[in-house]
Structure formats: C-alpha cells, structure tokens
Design goal:
By secondary structure, this protein is mostly helical. The chain is 77% helix and 0% strand.
Length: 470
C-alpha cells in the first residue's frame, strides 16, 4: 500500500471529525501515559541506586543485559498480542507491570544480598516486559483513534505535543528524583518544618522508587480510561476479521512479510535503526565523555535537564521538516547533522565539546519523530502494533549488538595501549582506549548508512517507477 493510498483511506474514515485531536480522550490519555511511563524518578541516580542497594558493577551489567534481552524476546509477540487482544488491554498490563517492578525493589529487605539480587532480577524482567508491551501499542491506539475521527493528518502535531510534555516530565523527574535521593536535602527540608525526624541513605534511596510507583498507579488510572477505537476499514471497505489466538504467529509472519515487501516501510525501519542505535550508544556514554572534556561531575544533572529543555523545541522543528521536506531529504539532513556531530565529538574539545553532544541528542529525537510519523502513515490499522514492534525489535537488537562491539573494541584497544605504554597508569590507558573507540563512531555510522542505502534505494526507485506507470 502506498503513502498516497493510505492518505486517501484516512481522509474518508469516520463521518464525524473532532475539531481538535486533543478533544479526544484517547489522545489526552496517550500523552499522559507517555509522560507517566517514561519520567522515572530514579533515572538521575540509576547506576548508584543499584550500588547503594549492595549490588556490584558486574551484577549491574548482568541485570541490564537481562533487561535488554527481555525486550528483544518480547517485542514482536507483544505487538501481535496488541493487535489481537486490543491495545488498551496491553497498556493496562503494562501499567500493572510497572507497579510490580517498583514494588519489588521498593520494599525488598536489605539483610540478604541474594534476596536483593533476585528482586532486582525480577525488576529487570518486569521492566523489560513493560517496555515491550508498551512499544507500539500506545502509538497504535492513539493513531487509530485519529484515523477513526478523520484526523490522521494531525499525528505530527500530536507527536510534537507528546514529546514536549514528555520533556517537561523528564525535567521534573530528573530534578525531584535527584533531590529526594540525597538524605542531606531531605533532612534540611524536615528541619525547616521542625519535624525532628532524620533519614539516612538506606531510607532516602527508596524515595525515587516510591515516586515512580506513584507514577505507575497514575498510569494505570489513565490506561483503564482508554478505549480501543473501532477497527478502520481497509481499502475494500470491509472491516478486518478478528484474529484468533492461534493466529498470533501467522500475524507476526504476515507483518514481517509486509515490511519486506513494502520498500518504504523497510527503508524507514532500517535507516532509523542505523541512526538510533549509533546515537543511543553515544548517549549512554555521556558521563564518561563529559569527564574527558573537563566538565565537573556536579553539572551532569543540570546537563540532563538542559537536554530535556532542548527536547521541548525539537518536535516542532521535526514536524515542520516532515511537512516541508520529503522523507529522503530528511534522512539526508539527519545524516549530515549526525555525522558532523560525531566527527566533532572525536576532538574532545574541553567544555565546547558539549555542543556536539547536544546535537547527538537532537539527532536521536528527530529519529524518533520521523520514524513514528512515516511508519504510522503507511501501516494499516489491523497490524499497526505488530509493525511498530518490529521497529522496536530492530532498534533494541542493534543496540545490544553495538554494545557488545563497543565493549570488545575497548578491551582490544586497552590491551594495545597497555602494551605500547606499559608505564601509563590504568586510568590513562582507559581514557585513551575510550577516545580511540569514540573515533570509530562516525565511520561506523557512515558504513551503516551506505549499506542501508545500497539495500533500500534500488527497491524504492523500482517501486516509484511502478507507481508512476500505474
């Protein structure tokens, strides 16, 4: 199905069109759910939270590997279940999983390290399942709501508002989460109110968890109020038949086959995958990079909030780009901006090196916006969540692979540096290995874009020629 045919379909769907997409309860609840689900108060203290609970760095790495593996394994089946059972049910289950993961570590006793580890293992599995179930289901429900009211063209505006609201929520979560984690801050506040109570680190480290638990409860209240929109008619005017549970695998295969046969869908997923996992890996390494460009560690939290402020403006730029430019031109512009930022990162300029890192964050936001806009635009309703889950699978699998490659590269370069400079201290060897590994990223992105272009551009050109002749 072409973009033009889907536009004709959405334009004729629904006899009653709302005056504004924000007048639709599902749209308001979708935005609220995204804010509550993603603004987690423990993010600014994520690593030290694990350590303060008594876990080691090796256990921290293992637990997050389990988290990523859970998402990869559950991503596509969860999308099929969303298309099969209804997106609202999946989102309700997602909220319940979020509540359960917070309860596990919010109330675990600290007396036995083994119990703490198993609680965090359960937390990571539940968190991965929640991420997988939410991926695609929330967007599919919101987009189909717009389609059912003849407002599919408003999706870029809805995305813009959603991303801006999420940025505001992220700022609040980063600021408040870091504050309540610090027992000194809490005790000063208690002193102002003359309450006479005192808290220690073992008490205050749970407070961001409790705040996130409250967010989970509010997310549950939002999802139970959602309603699955009626299935949208296909091009023939018939509503798709309901799918039985035994057809889940067939639904996944059908959606995968459709992606493979639809050049635009394949190109959107592959180009976005290349940008996403490369830029996301850089974002994961920000604290190490900031230290090497001589930024004080006390500024890291403020920089995280600054990124959220930037995220308040990027969605409008992205919406204007989708309205004025073709998908191909947007990919080209995103590629130029991302490569320029990555090459500038390799210089490690003190203080000013912050600017290309901010551009990396912008590139990641643009990638997210473009992917959602273009992929929802060309996907039919009855397999929308499944197709979006394939996108999530590609993103997370690629991210996992680049993490392993980066770890192996660091280890290889570290050994080489230690052999050449046996008199160097370990920290200097590690810093040089990090610099050398970062220098590979612009070439890695270039190679990835070339390979995807060689695969996708001939198919896109053939498809356009056929469409023009038709």
């Amino acid at each position: 199905m072409t973009v033009r045919s889907v536009d004709r379909e959405t334009a004729t769907t629904g006899t009653l069109a709302a005056a504004s997409p924000y007048g639709l309860p599902n749209i308001r609840l979708f935005i609220l759910f995204r804010v509550l689900f993603n603004a987690r108060f423990y993010y600014p203290v994520f690593t030290i939270l694990f350590l303060d609970y008594g876990l080691s760095l090796e256990q921290f790495a293992l637990l997050n590997t389990v988290w990523a593996a859970t998402i990869v394994l559950a991503e596509v089946p969860s999308g099929a279940l969303a298309d099969l059972l209804g997106r609202r049910r999946l989102l309700v289950v997602t909220s319940l999983l979020m509540i359960a993961e917070m309860v596990l570590i919010g109330f675990v006793p600290l007396s036995d390290p083994r119990v703490v580890f198993w609680a965090f293992l359960g937390n990571r599995v539940l968190s991965g399942l929640a991420e997988a179930l939410a991926s695609g289901a929330d967007e599919a429900l919101a987009y189909d709501t717009l389609v059912a009211h003849g407002l599919a063209g408003s999706w870029p505006k809805v995305l813009e508002v959603q991303m801006r609201a999420q940025s505001l929520g992220y700022i609040g979560a980063m600021t408040l989460g870091a504050m309540v984690y610090d027992p000194g801050v809490i005790n000063r506040v208690l002193g102002w109110w003359s309450l006479g109570a005192m808290v220690d680190q073992q008490m205050s480290m749970r407070y961001p968890i409790y705040l996130t638990l409250l967010s989970g409860l509010l997310a549950l209240a939002a999802t139970v109020r959602m309603r699955d929109p009626q299935a949208c008619p296909d091009q023939t005017g018939h509503r798709p038949e309901p799918v039985s549970p035994r057809e889940v695998v067939r639904l996944v295969v059908r959606a995968g086959g459709w992606i493979g046969r639809t050049p635009m869908a394949l190109a959107v997923i592959l180009y976005a995958m290349v940008f996403d996992h490369t830029l996301r890996m850089i974002v994961t390494l920000t604290s190490k990079y900031y230290r090497l460009i001589e930024l004080p560690e006390a500024s890291f939290g403020l920089l995280g909030s600054a990124v959220a402020v930037i995220g308040f403006f990027v969605p409008r730029v992205a919406r204007i780009m989708t309205e004025r430019f073709s998908p191909g031109r947007n990919v080209l512009l995103l590629g130029i901006v991302s490569l320029a930022a990555l090459f500038l990162l390799t210089l490690f300029v003190p203080y000013l090196g912050l600017l290309p890192m901010m551009v990396v964050f912008v590139g990641l936001m643009l990638t997210s916006f473009f992917t959602s806009h273009y992929l929802n635009r060309i996907t039919v309703s009855h397999q929308r969540a499944t197709v979006l889950s394939f996108k999530g699978l590609a993103f997370n699998a690629a991210y996992g692979c680049i993490g392993l490659v980066f770890a192996g590269l660091i280890q290889h370069v570290r050994r080489g540096q230690a052999a050449v400079h046996p008199d160097w201290p370990g920290t200097l060897v590690e810093d040089q290995a990090f610099r050398a590994a970062i220098a590979c990223f612009p070439w890695y992105l270039t190679l990835g874009l070339i390979l995807v272009s060689l695969l996708c551009l001939p198919r896109l050109l053939r498809h356009r020629d056929v469409a023009d002749r038709g």
